[in-house]
Design a protein that fits this description.
Layout: E1 2-7, E2 12-17, E3 23-29, H1 32-40, E4 49-54, H2 58-72, E5 75-78, E6 84-85, E7 88-89, H3 100-113, E8 117-122, E9 125-131, E10 137-144, H4 146-156, H5 164-170, H6 180-207, E11 212-216, E12 231-232, H7 236-244
Parallel strand pairs: 1-4, 4-5, 8-11, 11-12
Antiparallel strand pairs: 1-2, 2-3, 6-7, 8-9, 9-10
Helix pairs in contact: 1-2, 3-7, 4-6, 5-6
Keywords: ATP-binding, Coenzyme A biosynthesis, Cytoplasm, Kinase, Metal-binding, Nucleotide-binding, Potassium, Transferase
Catalytic activity: (R)-pantothenate + ATP = (R)-4'-phosphopantothenate + ADP + H(+)
Binding site for ATP: 6-13, 124
Length: 251
Amino acid sequence: MILELDCGNSFIKWRVIHSSGVIQAGGVVGSDEELLTHLSEAPSLRPLQCRLVSVRTEEETERLAALLRSQCSIETKVAQPARIQGGVANGYEAFERLGMDRWVAILAAFKLAGRACVVIDLGTAVTSDFISHDGEHLGGFICPGLQLMRGQLRTHTRRIRYDDYSADQAKATLLPGRSTVEAVERGCVLMLRGFVSTQLEHACAYWGADYSLFLTGGDAALVSDAFPQAHIVPDLVFQGLAIACPLEEKV
């Protein structure tokens, strides 16, 4: 079995798969130690290899790899920047500066689409990337995600105070809000939708209607109903990680 890790700034997404791609287990944890606890508490999960994509510092990533080696006897392969990989040419002037989570999602989307595509990841930060028909990465955009927008309003506006349950309830519709929580939550969702709409304007300017749209990330569900043409792929990063770090299962 293979352990796959997507190490973000706030959380670690993990799953254990067979080399065939069948998922055995998975989840989201807040620390390296919590990940090790999950693995140790599941006797049936005994991955011998790990592939990992990280936006953390090299020191943090190396620390996790060392823990997996010493406590679980798991060898880790870390996805690395590349100028060209998986039929895609990295479009950043300094290719090594493109976030690795974005890069592997780009690889997966281009493989799935086989044509021009737009990749939008709606997570802590919202990112978009444009890939041409011939696999040229044209660049992209980054803006704050829902949690960051909400957090800034709560932090810098004295009268905006509400709990997470109220926030979830407020997003049941997108009618004009009649309370602060409704106004903030629905306004932030509309900003996300507006961002996606703008990306599609760029895509249409490039390719007309001849492209594919991919949505991923934890808040993709908040905008997906407005874009029925979109492919919703929650594990897009993991699919791209398999392209960047191919492994043969050890037995």
